[in-house]
Amino acid sequence: MKEIKNLLGYRESIKVVDATLRDGGLVNDFYFTDDFVKALYQANIDAGVDYMEMGYRASKKVFDETKFGKWKFCNDDHIREIVGDNDTNLKLAIMADIGRHDKNDFDQKANSPVDLVRVAAYIHQMPEAIDMVEDAAKKGYETSCNIMAISNSKEEEVKVALDMLGQTPVDCIYIVDSFGSIYPEQMTRIADMYLEFAAKYNKKVGIHAHDNQKLAFANTVEVCGCGVDWLDATYLSMGRGAGNCAMELLLGFLKNPKYDVRPVFKFLEEYMIPLKEQGIVWGYDLQYLMTGLFNQHPRAAIQFTKDQRKDLSNFYNEITSID
Amino acid sequence: MKEIKNLLGYRESIKVVDATLRDGGLVNDFYFTDDFVKALYQANIDAGVDYMEMGYRASKKVFDETKFGKWKFCNDDHIREIVGDNDTNLKLAIMADIGRHDKNDFDQKANSPVDLVRVAAYIHQMPEAIDMVEDAAKKGYETSCNIMAISNSKEEEVKVALDMLGQTPVDCIYIVDSFGSIYPEQMTRIADMYLEFAAKYNKKVGIHAHDNQKLAFANTVEVCGCGVDWLDATYLSMGRGAGNCAMELLLGFLKNPKYDVRPVFKFLEEYMIPLKEQGIVWGYDLQYLMTGLFNQHPRAAIQFTKDQRKDLSNFYNEITSID
């Protein structure tokens, strides 16, 4: 059993990472207004959030720029238009998605408002991910690496990836429950495995959870108790499919007085709920429960949602007949 | 850490209790149609659910019969109209709410389709709860007892209540997170305390969770891993305020092959989602998160919901200024 002090006290080493623009951008193709992004930035500052992910820095050679909002490609100028010199305690992050990025799009840290480059990769892409981590670190950025879809990887492969990453300059290695299929008891085991490698190589461990089985917050709290320090969350859980760990739940839970949940509710009221009222759809729902339960990518459930289908029984049969 | 076998295997002793009519009835004043109740009964049979709670047996001396559907007062005839002789493996339960029941409304078990009498009481009502447990047990019923609102009770008082209940004929003692304020780590400690008394007196322990912080399922799974056997759930989480542990999540998780989640989705599609579409409102929402976070009864959040208010920041100030 975990120590009660983990619950009543707090660890200075915990970092809260707002991923609303990046994971939430997958829901609205990154069409956030500057007004929205400025208000989110201010809410993060007021709430004591540690990092704000501004979006992807996707390669324009891979994606058609006319089909997405700018936060899919966010460059340093886009960011400066929001944050100026960012003379605050809130650090800024962007994500490089392996295979869909271009490391030449990343200037030296000295010239950039970005503090942290988050690299996301499937396990078979580790060599390319490590190349990106090393390039970003050499340029002066903090770096983290998400190993995606581990619920479909063999434990031995994950261990090899952790050992490889341990030998890079990466600051933090993320547990990612891409399909929202992992239960808290399993999460504890996974966290212990990650933390073992992290201790060996002096790295931090983070978690990025999905809410397919309403476990994103529970899993985040679970591994936080194990020693996982970097905790991803999004406002109103905005993120692909079932969404993520809710910022409002996480900041309500964390005890460090630097965090304040009150400004979160103000932002939800003024910005997030209006997004939902405009018809942008995300969050826990039965179709996502099913893909989570069967450890599948949510794409079928996302399509079911887009098609406004209601025939859950048919959907159940469809996804359970996929081999 | 819990044994992995708890997750991959299963315990025969686990019982799933459907509380949709009873806790869900608090949302629609118990106005369920007979068609709905028959379909729910069939879904429970098809899904392998162990107990179905048919409602409260509230005293008509306390509540005005014209202001509620019959499942608030459900008598043996109401139940027989749905289940006939109930020649199935599904056992039937009703709830007696201490202070609002009349033990004379309970016939001998030999004359009743009811198998289990569930007694619900606040901790200061224990003597009356025990009187009801003893009366029901003497008449031949299985019995359980919910100690409500323990998040506002002193641990020593809860231990006294557990010791008192241990000496009665009660079959199962329930952990009840009335306000949805308890985190999984705390739940583990509470479960261990209940299980210690249960072992001493040869009782079972159950859990009835609320979803204010999206933790009803996580907490249920958590204590199930500790040895808690009776697990309450409701279809689509239907229950007072933020609702309960979702039947669809729980049956997806449990590994005993007698459980089947497929019929649950059919019932949700055909009966539960239409209820929502009719405008009946329940389930996780931000106002319930707040009352859960501050360990308060959800009544202010229920009123906020009824009034269709959107001013979350004001609500936050209101509930945090209550002493």
Please characterize this protein's 3D structure.
- The structure is a homodimer.
- The first copy, chain A, is α/β, with parallel strands linked by helices and about 325 residues long.
- Chain A folds into 2 domains: about 5-275, Aldolase class I (TIM Barrel); about 285-320, no CATH class.
- Helix content of chain A is about 45%, strand content about 15%.
- The first copy, chain A, has 13 helices and 8 strands.
- Chain A has an 8-stranded parallel beta barrel, surrounded by 5 helices.
- Chains A and B meet through helix 7, helix 8, helix 9, helix 10 and helix 11 of A and helix 7, helix 8, helix 9, helix 10 and helix 11 of B.
Keywords:
13 helices, globular, homodimer, 323 residues, alpha/beta, eight-stranded parallel barrel
Condensed summary:
The structure is a homodimer of 323-residue chains. Helices cover 43% and strands 14% of the residues of chain A. The radius of gyration of chain A is 19 Å and the shape is globular.
